[in-house]
Amino acid sequence: MRLRIVTPLSIVVDQDADSLRAQDASGSFGIWPGHAPFLTALSVSILSWTSAGVERFCALRGGVLTVTGGNTVAIATREAVAGDDLATLDTEVLARFQSDADEERVEHVETMRLQMNAVRQMISRLRQGADAGQFR
Fold it and tell me: Which of 46, 87, 90, 114 is buried most, with the most CB atoms less than 10 Å from its CB?
């Protein structure tokens, strides 16, 4: 089957694969040639696959995996780093991806907090205007 991993800026992997293992919110799963059509959102994880008996790895910063035609696996992700050394990918890259994801969550919460404060101020001013009779 054909495995293709792409980011917005590059094609990270485009090669034949005998099988692969990935991880989504429900846990780890495998894909073999002839797999049924499939679509899932991947978590920050390490993807592994074998090609001609050699195991390869790719750290993924989440993404979407699709299986089409039983012989094509496509992964679209924000960031991916392929490598042959699982220890390096696991300790360095995966930790960095997880840290980036955590920072994005904090930034999102802060953005929502600012938006809610702006809405509260608008409502407060509208109420003050209504109480003063400006909106009749």
Answer: 46
In the block, residue with structure tokens 């809610």: 116
CB within 8 Å of 85: residues ≥ 6 apart? 57
pLDDT digits (tens, 9 = 90+) for 23-82: 999 999 999 999 999 999 999 889 999 999 899 999 898 899 999 998 999 999 998 888
Q: Which residues contact 14 (CB under 8 A, 6 or more apart)?
A: 2, 3, 4, 5
Q: Is residue 135 part of a domain?
A: no
Backbone angles phi, psi at 38, to 5 degrees: -155, 145
Phi/psi at 100 (nearest 5 deg)?
A: -60, -40
Q: How many Å apart are CA 28 and CA 56, to the nearest integer?
A: 16
- The CA distance from 77 to 69, in Å, is 21
pTM score of the predicted model = 0.68
Residue 83 lies in a domain: yes
Domain span at residue 81?
A: 2-105
Burial of 101 (0-12, 13-18, 19+ CB in 10 A): middle
